[in-house]
Structures are given as structure tokens and as C-alpha cells.
Amino acid sequence: MKVNKQAQVKGKSQKWKDVRSKRCRPSIKSSDLNSSPVMVRVVKEHQVSAKKKPSVKRLKNKAKTVSDHNKSKPSESGVRKTNPETNGSSMFTLDEEGEDLQQLKEYSQIIQRNGLQTTGETWDVKFGRLEGEALHHCAQRDDRQNHAVLVMQQDQTLCFRGKCFLTCLYGRVEVMGFTIEEGQKSYPVYSPASHCPLTIRALETSHFHRNDRTEASQILQKYLPPASRKKLLKKITLASSVILLEPMETPLTRFLSSFTHLSELFSPPANELMSAVLDTPLNGLGVIPLTSTVEGLKMSQSYRDALNTAVSACRGDMDGSAVILVCGIKNVGKSTFIRVLINTLLNHTSSVDYLEGDLGQTEFTPAGCLSMLTVREPLLGPPFSHQNTPEHMIYYGDVSCEADMDRYLESLKSLWRRRPKSRETPFIINTMGWVKGFGLQLLVDLIRVLPVSHVIQLSHGSTTQCPALTPEFLRTAHGCQTHPPAQTAMDECTESHGPPKSYSHLDVQAEFRGVARQGTAKYQRSNEQRELSLLAYLSQLQSPEPGPVRPLHSLTPYQVPHAAVALGVIHCEVVPSHMFYAVNASLVALCCLTEKVTSKGGPVLLPQAPVCPCVGFGVLRGVDMARGLYFLLTPVDPSVLRKVNCLLLGAISLPSCIFTTQPDLEGETPYVTTDYSFDLTGAGKLRVFKGLARPSHAGTQ
């Protein structure tokens, strides 16, 4: 997914500005979400049980009377014209009004004279989770245009599994901390089984001056037939929000769904099947609502307080920009917290800078990368849904840095030096879940080396998983490269950016279910999530036009001469004579060495791992020894490829499904063999740990 730069709004501060934008997108004409065998079986069971006994009862309480100060006065013409640029639609006029709008005017007059009248057809507003019968009353689907419109009252929520495009037609809603208002473009939202389900929440609106039902009728004319419009208009009040949900079909989703083991990725996992609502107008669009028995994102009070403090710091008049480092043990919710923080900041500023320090669970790139980039679009899904090429990236080549911590630190320092000194954008730093022994020392180094203004530390329960990284603790703590008093190993960095003498430490208690435990359900293991991110990156090789998925072996590769690029293996030692065997049919990083690559007639091999810029990745699908050529598949633009003079092989391997799922092949499957034994001497990788001593030997445990 590419990030487009938002247009700046005049009259706002350059540091902190309103960044609402509009987007015109062609209509989606994709088919309904394909039902898997499991979902078909569950739907049938649900329909049988629904016939026996209804599970949801209708509320009997009457709706509250609308107060006088909330009544809207009709304009002279009776119609308030809409913005011609809103979601790419044109203005509505009185000539386009139908009979339903005339009836609605009479209904509105009754409201103004006598208060809200309830009839047998009027559904009483129920706040909280939208589920069961409520979804049939407040959602209508247009099968012809293949989309659905949903009316939500203030503080109502929709928790779901699936994927779709979301457009706010009226009012405003919030998803993962990001506020979507009417007039903005459509946003893709992803709620796969690999992560916590997303929740859409209707927010309070302040448009008390508007004629709510008249404007809503004009908006809905474009999206629903008259009968469906009449049903929804009775549910709309001044506090309502109306959203449009459309099916999403992209090269990413098509590529992922082409693998059989990922066919259930956007369906509820096994432990949520009984909580799935399977007979609503939203299901055929790829959205499966969940009942209140399934929790969405759970925020503790300390979680909310830390978000508010961080946002306030970014909005305040600090000397320079706020630099926020987020740390904590594994599986405590660091990545989710950072997504919510970035989304919340994007409500106020046009961009947020991000430094990736977690090799195993990267946010915007395949695993094994350290990167720095500017985020301009909200993150409304897990990492595989927003893979992007950073402005600056270094390939470390492993999911852990314990084998070479010096190269890890030097890589992060190199990335920080590339940040402009005068930049005032909020800066977020993600860290690894390694918080003991040398992992704790690395955190101490990062806080000292980088001009951190806030440290947000996530933990859980009453036990101490990691010492509180307060300024007092750092006065006596030892790092891998730094020691007290705070002497940095990068004087030129700290002098130029002026790190503060102290920083704010915020403790966040994570209280969600399963905290500090890796998920055991399908797609929830860390290695499976790394595989999803890599597959998402490779999906960029697919055509953006709708059509069947093209397997990788059917794509035409680039031909790269051996003498034009250097070749290196950075995660283990390989003898030169076996180098081509190691890199064949592997994922390689496309890097740019500062020095020129010179060849004496053969391939150029690197003796050690370099710290150099990386511009992307490719699949080395073949080596032609006779002609001296590498055959390379990559989505990187040819203009950028001209700068590449180094191919690096790391421990990040291609998913096995890339090799085993190759349609239209005759004979043996390329690159795949079953005649192999890891019991043979030298059959596995030989790992080398550079300068790593046991914590007990170093006296730092």
C-alpha cells in the first residue's frame, strides 16, 4: 500500500494542522466474499437454530423526546446543499427529491410539534455493541451496487472480522484511534483472525444547526433505493453517524486468498465462531459482526492516560519535536499501542515519523529490517495490510540481534543521522520485546543515544518483568556501549540534536485477555505473522488490475550480471564455493554500497556484513553460471534498481507456500525436494555469535 502525501491546509500551524482530506475512488465491482466450507456449515447451523428460538428480543422502552434546543430550523428553501466535493459526489437539488423526502418533511414537522413519536415500526435506540436484530434495523444493503449503509448512534460500536472500504457519509466514527468524518475519502480496514478484531465506534457530533433527515435523505439517494432509504431515515437523529461499507478486492487480498492455508484469514477464528452474527446485510460484503462476548481492543486507564499525555506533548510547544520510545516485554501490545498512538496523532498532524527497532515484528517491512519512514495514512489493520517502502532502511537479516548487537546499534544510529535536524514532526520509536540481560542494556543504550523525550513502558500484572526505565534508573545502569554517567557512543548525534537531560516515563498496564502469551490460534503465531508480511510485500508483483493471480514462476525476471553486484550472506558463514547454492531460490535484500563494485571477471563476494541502505527485496529465482547472470524478481522500480550494487542474503526465508503452491506445472516442482536429511553433518546453518558473552559472565544479570 503506497502512502500519498496529504495536501496541507491553509491557515493552520505548520507543526500541528488539521489534515482532513478527500479522495475520489472508482466504484468497486467485486463479487461477494467467498464463503469457506467452515463458514457455510456454521451459517446453516445458525439458520436452523434461529428458526427454533429467537436469540434477541426487541426493547420495549420508548425513545426519549427530542429537546427544544436540539430541534433544527429548516432553511428558506427547505434544503441545505451538500459540498460538491464530498466523496466525489455532486450536489443534490430539489428536483432530485422523491416522494420519500416529502413524507419525511411531514414526519419532521410532527417531531417539532409533539416530540418524537414511536410507532410499531420504530426501533428503539440501543447503545453499546451492534449485534443481532439491531443490525437488521440499522443496516441496509443495495445488492445492485453491492454495498451496505449502516446507521450508528453515538457511542454505538460494531466489532467485526473481515475487510472492507469504509466511508463516513454523515457524522463521524473512530477506528483504532483515527477519526473518520463525512467528506473524507474511503479508508481500507482490515480485521483478520491474526489480530484483535477491529471496532468502529460512532462519535459525538456537534451539528445541531443542520436539518438531519433532510441532509441524510440527500446523501442516501446515491446509495440506497427508496424503500431502504425510508427504513434508515427513521433511525437518523442529530447524534447519528452513517457509514458506507463496500467490499474490498485488491492485489494484496487476491494474492493472499490464492493460498489455501490462508482462505480463512478474514473469517472468525474457531473460538469466535459461536459469537459471529452470520445473517446480517453486512455479511456478503466481507464483514462478519461479532457479539459482545468477543472483546475488541481493550484499553486500561493507564493506556488512555499515556495516549493523552503523548498527544498533549506533541501538541505542546516543546523545544523541538517529541521523541517517544515504546518498550515492553513480548506480546504485551506494543505494536497495537503504537498504531493507536500514530492514528490519534494523525487526527491533528499531517505526518508522524517512525523508527523501527523490532527486527522480529516489523510494522511496514518484511522482518529483519531496521527502517525510518514518515507515516501519512492511518494504520487500520495489522502490519501486512500496510507494507510500504521506507525512506531509509537497513537490512539486518535476522529476527533477533543477539548474534551481532554492535551492528544493530550502528544501524539504528545510521538511520537517526538521516533525519533532518530542523524537523518538528512527532517521532515514534518501536523496540524489541527483549528486555532482560543484553536486551535491557540495548534499551539503555537507545535511550541515551537518541534524544528521547518520553519513554512509554508497557507491562502487565503485579510482577516485575523489566526494571522501570526511569531517568533515575539510567543514572546507574550500564548499556552495551554506554555507561554511567550518560556518555553516548555517538557524540555527533547527541550534539547536533541536543538530547534532553531528562525525560518523562509513563507506565502502561496492559489488561487485555491473553496478555504476555503468544496466540495459539491459526495465523496468530509470530512466525505466521512474519510470513503474512512477506507475502504482502510479494503481492506488489501482481497487476493492479482485477484478474487471476499470477504465480511467481510465470513472471519475467530481471537479468543481473554477476560482475554488476556484490553478493553477501550476513546471518551465517558460507564457504565461497557454496555461495550460489545458498542464494538460489531465496529472498535477497537489494542494497546500495557506497564504494564501487569491481570484478576481476567473476562474482564479487563480500567478506563481512555491511551497514548500507536497502531499497527493497527480490526473489533470486535462478543463477546462470554459463552466462554469469542472476535472475531476479522484484517490485522495486527500475529507476531505483539502477542504484543497487549489492545483494544480501539473511535468515529471512521465503514462505514454503511460495514453492509448494505453483499451479500449471508439469513434472517435479522446482526448488522442492524431499530427499534431504538434517542429520547429516553440515546440513544446517552454522551460526556465528560475534562478541556475545553470557550475562552471568559479564555480571549484568
Automatic annotation (TrEMBL):
Residues 49-63 have a biased composition (Basic residues). Its main location: nucleus. Residues 28-37 have a biased composition (Polar residues). Residues 138-271 form the NOL9 N-terminal domain. GO terms for cellular component: nucleolus. Keywords: ATP-binding, Kinase, Nucleotide-binding, Nucleus, rRNA processing, Transferase. It is found in: Nucleus, Nucleolus. InterPro entries: Clp1/Grc3 (IPR045116), CLP1_P (IPR032319), NOL9_C (IPR057570), NOL9_N (IPR057573), P-loop_NTPase (IPR027417). This is Polynucleotide 5'-hydroxyl-kinase NOL9. The lineage of its organism: Eukaryota, Metazoa, Chordata, Craniata, Vertebrata.
